[in-house]
Task: structure prediction
Amino acid sequence: MTFEDEINQTVRYLKPSGIRRFFDIAATRKGVISLGVGEPDFITPWHIREEAIHAIEQGKTFYTGNKGLPKLREGICAYYKRRFHVDYDPEDNVIVTVGGSEAIDIVMRTLVQPGDEIILPTPAYVAYAAIIEMAGAKVREIVLKEEEGFKLTPEALKDALNEKTKAVILNFPGNPTGGIMTREDYEKIVPILKESGIYAITDEIYAELTYEQKHCSIAEFDEIKDHVIVINGFSKAYSMTGYRVGYILAKKELIDMILKIHQYTIMCATTPCQFAAIEAVNNGDKDIEEMFVSFRQRRNYIVKELNRIGLYTPMPQGAFYAFPSIKRTGLSSEEFCERLLDEQSLALVPGNAFGDAGEGFVRISYAYSLDQIKAAIAKLEQFLKDGGWDK
Amino acid sequence: MNELLNLLKDNARYEVRDLALLLNEDEEKVSEEIRKLEEDKVIAGYHTIINWDKAETPISKAIIFVNCVPERERGYDRIAERISRYPEVESLSLISGKAEFILKVTGKDMREISHFLAHKLAPTEGVNGTETMFILKEYKTNNAVFYNANEESERLLVTP
Result:
């Protein structure tokens, strides 16, 4: 028996993250400029950092209850009510997790039985498919289309549904596409969800970065709220990626089940980080708004510049990514990114890192200073010129 | 307009082209708005934040509390205008508390500031007391920190 035969066969055949592979290439080069990160460029606001420090100073470093500090759960519920008009109860409907990542994992493991299918609109954040497969379900892809603004359409949803479907993953605003779902968009798919009785797992980590209108949570639709599981966290809204604090909002019966996995695998989210999160959720609206304005400005800037240099880029409605098509160049996403790295020392993320549906696209993050964005645009412009793709 | 002001507040050297791209506006419109803000004195000037301790010609600064009596009908305005005419006075505000005015003054050294205090400020009509605090070291001014904040980003090159 070989080592490969000994280990879990699902893990064995799990594809390593394409981003990881590209990171390994980029990391060996010197002087690389990158527009490749999936995290904000702000340092966590000081009043939030200071709360984490204070918690450590005060020795608040014990386990918390499995669901998380009561004050944090209260803060999260007040926040969802205040900003997205959705009611949840701090005692019954919340679990604080180690980032949105843990939330995705334990929600999936709670829901899935062998043979189930999970509908995944793609291109998608890299973890979903892997987590679905590790939980023992099959991924049923829906390819989101650029010409439809990377939205989930009722037709596509209907086509993907069958008797094995357990849930659909919604990630709007989405990584890597920046696509959003408006209230009107959701109104078209909510009746389908209601009729089918499947769960909607809505990862709203980029909710605060919705540019032309207020974010609409699908949990606002009372007729399906029992079958909605909200995943969110502090990473993107408050620039707290390294704190690893996220949360799940769902009906009590589900929370009780999900909590079983959380309590046995994680126990609780890191205590000082939970204290920092309390400060963020109660007193961080101003930070959210400042970062929002700054991201919106940089979005405006980079999208106009990308179009100017010949890379047609529709205006993304959310998150902090532009996701232009590079099909015109005749290169694959990986060829494009590897050549760009070789010739101009500029790192972007190839679209196929987000699934086959991302082939022909590249993800460009604008969570960078204006100077860095300018330098990167100049490199990209030269690259397109050299390839004869600038017109 | 506030968004434009907030951008300029943090960086007066933005080019109009950059501002227009950031704000998703026409360059002409942004130029016109800036011109109007300048004309209306909403934008009253552009300055450079200098860490004089690092410059080859260090200067001295002091905070001065000034006690004075208001004038009938005019309040503090006339005396404030008189004091603010001195180029040594970098800023002047009417405040609540133990003094009427707080001033920030600059000079090439302590002697120059002392001279200004004794020969100009204190003898001004209406001024009946001052309290001077020399600035020993500036750590932060106009949102710029002068110490090594050591807050360099250590983000990875590529992340999901």
